[in-house]
Amino acid sequence: MKKIHIVALVLIAAAIAYMLITLSKDLTTYDTIASARQKQGKFIHLIAKLDRTKDIEYNPVTDPNFLAFYAIDSLGGQTKVIYHNTKPPELEMSERIVMKGKMNGEVFECKEILLKCPSKYKDDPLQQEKALEQKMQD
Amino acid sequence: MIYQGEHLFIGQLGHFCVLLSFVASIVATFAYFKATQTSAVLNEHMAWKKLARTAFIIETVAVIALFVTLYTIIYNHYFEYKYAHQHSKRSLPTKYLLSCLWEGQEGSFMLWSFWHCILGLGIMFKSGKWEAPVMTIISLAQIFLATFLLGIYFFDVKIGSNPFVLMRNEFPGAPVFQDPLYLQKYLRDGNGLNVLLQNYWMVIHPPVLFLGFASTIVPFAFAVAGLWKKDYTGWIKAALPWTLFSAAMLGIGIMMGAAWAYESLTFGGYWAWDPVENASLVPWLLVVAGLHTMLINKSTGYSSKSVYWFLFFAYLLLLYSTFLTRTGVLGDTSVHSFTGEGSSLFWHLIIMMAVFSAVFLTAYFKNRRQIPVIHKEEDVSSREFWMFVGALVFLISAAYITFFTSLPVINKIFGTHKAIGEDPEYVYNRVMILIAIVIGLLTAITQYLKYKKTPRSFWTKKILTPTIVSFIISLLISIFGNIDYNKYGIGYLGAIHLAIFSATYAVIANAMYIWTGVKGKLSLAGGSVAHLGFGMVLVGILISSSKKEVISINRTGIMIPGLKDPKGRDDSGLENITLIKGVPTPMGKYMVTYEGDSSHPADEKMYFKVNYVRKDTATGKVLEAFDLYPNAFLMKADEGKTALSANPDSRHYWHKDVFTFITSMPDPESIKDTATFRDHPVQQGDTVFYSNGYIIVDQVIEANKHTNKDLPLVDSAWLADVTVYSNNGITYKAQPALFSKDNAPIAKRDTVMSQNLVLQVNKVGSAIALGVKESNAVMKYITLKAFQFPFINILWLGILIMSAGFFISMRHRFKKDS
Fold it and tell me: What is the CATH number assigned to the segment(s) A29-120?
């Protein structure tokens, strides 16, 4: 066996070992609100929708780093969400929200929000069809 | 029904060009294939080659015509075409109309195809006997790219998507198309361009990146050609300049994307390990690794087999990156919102990857035993040994990045629900820092090694000076640079310092090698220049990221000294600060003031003027003062709400950037003054309460022109000097007044912005009253985030130097060829 092969094997083995050791720590799961409640304090990804029947609490004048709202998911789960950052401008328009954070009691402490908005899906034929009908009414 | 005002001819012309380029690419592929197979029979070979060249040139013309037609449609606002309707609108400045071309998927495939054509023409004239086999592979890729634009149905499967479709054919059911005047009545304007793309980087970044993307096929095609023609090493010399070109363009393209992210995407940085960024970085890593194995093979004959694999992986992962970013498979993990054509593109790209893999694997395994292999081991003191180790390290880093970027694909295959956890950047950074240490060291020392074997005394003599110099410099950086990034503990901080040494070493050693190794002959020093630039990139990344500082750290919402955080949160993430118009607010070392905003009817953006002042704390002397103009798009959205899309502004210094962007502002729709004044009859010394404190009337002054000669303009005046005592202990002075002229009252109101207070004086009989209004509309405020990036210019400069190095080498290699 050549030295270069030994170097290659050692490097690859180290990389794989490193990944295996850290993988469980690095990876998390997508959860529903109900399953998130079972994983208190564990960092997870939550896919939900904005609960439009409830108010969004955000007042940048008193605190630009405090946003609270309610989220619901397709399985009927509901939770309060707190996000220590500014309100994403498209929150009210979002169709789906991917939130990364931890469940803390009844409240989801969110560290990062990704919004899926209809405007981002302007390539989606269904949305376009809707937009065309909208044009007719205008 | 006959529709009015449509421009159908240009679309038909465009569609014809699509079909023409498709047919021409098939002819070119077949003819080049035959030309390769008949290379022994000169007549036949020349005939096939002539046909192939003609077909390829026709194809090039068709692709250019495609661009022209599509641009004409966008430029003239023919909104009957879906592409124009979806990606442009009338109010868009002309300079961004080009960006509309590449916003859509079809446009980016066109761009890719266009660069294949240009590169193909270059190969035709430069590559001699390699032309036919190399161009077979490129033309094969062109067939695929053309099918992405076909938009035809093959049984029930839609193949590709045609950029020239009409709105009314795409949405035949929509009621607007019942009207022959739909174009004049309803489709007068398009949807416009994503505001994030309305940035000058977006005009230039996609063409450059796609040139880099397209050029990766050239080394791959040469590798396959080498196997095909059974000339297992000869192709390398011809392919080297193209590989250097590819590495340079891909590198520049990626960094332009990073510059765009830095300037407009408000991620707070130039790199976020976003899947889309990773997808373009991985092919670059592999092209550079492949380049090094090519050099090894050319100089020593080693790595004769691995070079094929590196170039194959580079191209395969390039296709895979398109698959990741274009099919929507990344879904929830990326901020980039490509949604893609769904399942048809999904399988289309998988087939493309499968075909190219099959071509390579067949060629490789048929020839595997004939590829010459040197059985003697590489000497540990040889340059090729350490170059190969470097290439392996790049391969491993590429594999690591690919694994984490591919999690959504893995989830799809295995039905799992895994995602990267709490700190995605750290998942990458903590491995990449180790890679940086190793690569930096290798970059520094390997140039000083000779191929085959290096005499020990020679090497130690040459490497000694650069080692000592870099050790001293990096020690100075470590000691005086205040690099104390301790978020991840001492181990990671140590790794940062080690990496800084390693990167400095790469810079110094390569800079010195230009003099000691190649005696200052720049035309020969391409490698050293590129490595020097790469070292600078590492230094720039390390310093700017580990010393990135959030200036707008905020613990209590509005800055209220001494008040504790009522919600008891941890410190992280509180990176936004609210500035009330006209109220200077301390932020880090600066005192910042939101001074005003402006907009222009022809520009959808709103510009905010934010003034920064830094004073010497002891003497009060102004050390630094500047204005920044971050801007924001206000987009009309559903239910009368507006959404915000911000563009940052930065103050550039040679050694740092102060970077500011708006994160929130009041919705202008909501600023409707609904509050009313409440009158409180007052005398001097009275107290009036409001929701957040109280107001004391210090003095009431009554004057008229008979008693006071200083009142020439009005007949009489009532002034109130008041002090506002807010609950948080801050006091404000205000002086509302009421004037009267010709029996008409003129109120001079005074406002206390930060308390939402409007004060006025009213006359009630013979006494006066203080009118108090608490209104949200008074308050004009913005919320912003500010960062400081030190030494980011080293990064940008490093990229330029590295690319310059690639180009110097490329020129040198081309020259040597001819």
Answer: 2.40.50.140
